[in-house]
Amino acid sequence: MSDFITRFAPSPTGLLHLGHAFSALTAYEAARAAGGRFLLRIEDIDLARCKPEFEAAIVEDLAWLGLGWESPVRRQSAHFPEYARVLESLASRGLVYRCFKTRREIAEEIGRAPHHPGEGPEGVIYPGPAEPMSEEEEEARLAAGEAFAWRLSMRACREHLGARFDRLSFIEEGEGPEGEHGEVAARPETLGDVILGRKDVGTSYHLACTHDDALQGITHVIRGQDLFFATHVHALIQALMDWPAPRYRHHRLLLDEEGRRFAKRDRSLTLRALREAGETPQTIRARAGI
Ligand code: GLU
C-alpha cells in the first residue's frame, strides 16, 4: 500500500447532490489509482444546521454509489476539546484575539474605513481592529458574559513568522479557479482576520479541517475549487502549528444544465431524487464524467 491518504469531508446539513458525488468519486478514484486510503470525515461542527438524519443519508448514498471507506468515521462534533487545544496554543502565542463584535458592528466598522477592504472570496473581509482592545475592556466584557469569536490576527502572524509569512505556499496538483497549478504562493491576508473559533461552537471550519487533515495524515486534499481560497489560510495554520502540508487537488465544480453550481436548493439533483427517478450508480458516474 502506498502512503497516499485522502478524504471526503461533507457537512451533514442536507442531502448529497450530484456535485458532492463528483467530489467523493474523484477522491475515491484517486485513492484507488494510487493504491492508497480513502477516509470519510463528517464535518458537523455546526450543531444547529447538521442533522443525524443527513449523516445517515450521506453514508447510505455513498455506499449506494459503491464507495467504501475505513472505520471508525471521524465525526468532528465528538472532538471539540481537541480544537480548543489548538486555539489555546495559538492564543498563548498571541496569534488569535477575542472579537466581541456583531456582524452588524463589523459591517459598520468596515464601511467607515478609508480603504474599504470589500468582499473577499469568503464574504466580507475583516482586516482587524484599528486598535487592540484594552485589557480592562476585555475583562469587563468577559465578566459580563459577552459572547466572542476567536480571530486569527494576520498582523501577529506576519510578526511571528517573519520572512516566512511572505514565502508561504502550497502545492496544487489540480487547478485553482484561475488555472493555478504547481507551487502557489499563499496569501492568507487577502481573507482578513478569519474566525478560528466561532461564537457558538468555539471552533471553525478552517481550524477543525486543518487539525484533522494533520491528525489523520491526509497526504492529498481533493476538493472543489470553491475551497481554493480557504487553502491560503490552511497553509498559514499548518505553518503556525508545524503541521505537515498535504498536497492539494482542487477540482472544477460540476455545473447544472443552466451552468450554475449545484446547491442544496436543487432538490431534483440530490442523489436521493436521482435514485428514486431510476438512475443507477453507473448513470451517476456518467453524469459526473467519472
Ligand atoms: N466540509 C466542507 C464542505 O462540505 C468540505 C471540507 C473540505 O473538503 O475541506 O464544504
TrEMBL record:
Residues 6-283 form the Glutamyl/glutaminyl-tRNA synthetase class Ib catalytic domain. Coiled coil: none annotated. It is an enzyme of class 6 (ligase). PROSITE patterns: AA_TRNA_LIGASE_I (PS00178). It holds the Pfam family tRNA-synt_1c. Its EC number is 6.1.1.-. GO terms for cellular component: cytosol. One of its GO terms (molecular function) is ATP binding. Keywords: Aminoacyl-tRNA synthetase, ATP-binding, Ligase, Metal-binding, Nucleotide-binding, Protein biosynthesis, Zinc. GO terms for biological process: glutamyl-tRNA aminoacylation. It comes from the Bacteria. Belongs to the class-I aminoacyl-tRNA synthetase family. NCBIfam families: PRK05710.1-4. This is tRNA glutamyl-Q(34) synthetase GluQRS.
